[in-house]
Amino acid sequence: MTPVRLGHSDLQVSPICMGTMTFGEQVPEDRAHAILDRALERGVDFIDTAEMYAVPARAQTCGATETIIGNWLRKNPSARSRIVLATKVAGPSRGMPWIREGAGMTAADIVASCEGSLRRLQTDVIDLYQIHWPERSVPAFGSLYYDPSKERSQTPILEQLEALDRLVRDGKVRHIGLSNETPYGVHEFVRLAEQHGLPRIATVQNVYCLISRALENGLDESMHRLGVSLLAYSPLGFGLLTGKYDASGVEGPDAPDGRIARYESVRKQRWGRPEALAAARRYNQLARDHGMTPARMALAFCYTKWQVASTIIGVTSLAQLDEDLDAWGTRLSPELLAQIDQIRWEMRDPAA
C-alpha cells in the first residue's frame, strides 16, 4: 500500500485506517491488542478512535477504546513513532450527558476533551484531532433535512478553530479534521482558517459506502477543490454489505451475530431501515454474480474511488481484519461499476 497525504498537512498514512469503535464493547482488550498488532504488521499505520467510543455509546464504556489503545502503546512503546493516531472530540451531547454538561461544545470543552484523550491514549500528542459531529444542527446520522428552527449553536466556528489552534500551538495536536460534516461546514472551516491564520482542516471523516453515497452529491467537489481528504467510514454498511444478513434479516432469532442484530439502538438508525437491507441484498448478489464476496466488492468500491484518501475498517476478529486487508488491490471492471451505478439509480442512498 502506497502512503497517501492527508489534505495540505504533512501526514502520510496508509490508505486503509484501523477503526476501533468496537474495542471495549464487542472486542475485549486482549483481542483488540492482537488486532492492532496484526494491522501494524500488515502495513496499516493509521489508527482512528474517539473520546465517546466504544459504540454503541454508553456511560460505562465512554473512553474505553482510547484506554485500550493507550495500554497497547504502553506495551509497545516503539509503535507510537510508527503510527498516525487520530481521535475525535464529541460534538453536542445528543442525549449523552456523560460526555459533558450542557448542549453545546465550547472552546473549553474542546481543550478539556483533548487533554482527557491524551491521558487515556498515554501519548503527548494527537496527530489528527477531529470534531466528531458539528456543533451546529445539521442533518447527520440518517437525518435527511436541515431544519433552521432546530438551530441552537452556541460556539461559532471561529471560536472552535481558535481552541484547536491553541492545542496545536501547545504541541498537543499536530493537525485537525472534521467528521459528519456538510459542504457548508467544510467551506467555512477552510475560509475562516485562511482568513485568520488558523489551522486548516486536513480531513473530513464521513460515511461512504454502496448504500450511502450522498457524499457524491456535492461534498466531494467541495473537498476536492479545497484540498481536504476524505476518510470514509462504514464501507461495509455496518455489516449489511457482508451478506450475512441477506437470508435472515437483522432481527429475530435467526439473525447472525453483529452490531445491527445485537444492538436495538443501531437498528433504529439508518442501517436498520428495510430499504437499506433491500439495497444491500442487491449489491451483495451483484458481487456474487461477478465471482467475489460481497465484502470484497464493497471494500474495493471504497478502496478505488478517487474521492477516498483512506478507508476506515472496523473488525471484531483477526479473520475479519485479514479478509478486509486481502481485498486491497481488487479492481472493479467498468461493467461492474456501471451495474453498481444502476442499482444506485434505482434505490438511491437508503442509509444516507
UniProtKB/TrEMBL annotation:
InterPro entries: AKR_Detox_Biosynth, NAD(P)_OxRdtase_dom_sf, NADP_OxRdtase_dom. Keywords: Oxidoreductase. GO terms for molecular function: oxidoreductase activity. It holds the Pfam family Aldo_ket_red. Residues 15-343 form the NADP-dependent oxidoreductase domain. PANTHER family: NAD(P)-LINKED OXIDOREDUCTASE SUPERFAMILY PROTEIN, NADH-SPECIFIC METHYLGLYOXAL REDUCTASE-RELATED. This is Aldo/keto reductase. It comes from Ramlibacter rhizophilus. The lineage of its organism: Bacteria, Pseudomonadati, Pseudomonadota, Betaproteobacteria, Burkholderiales.
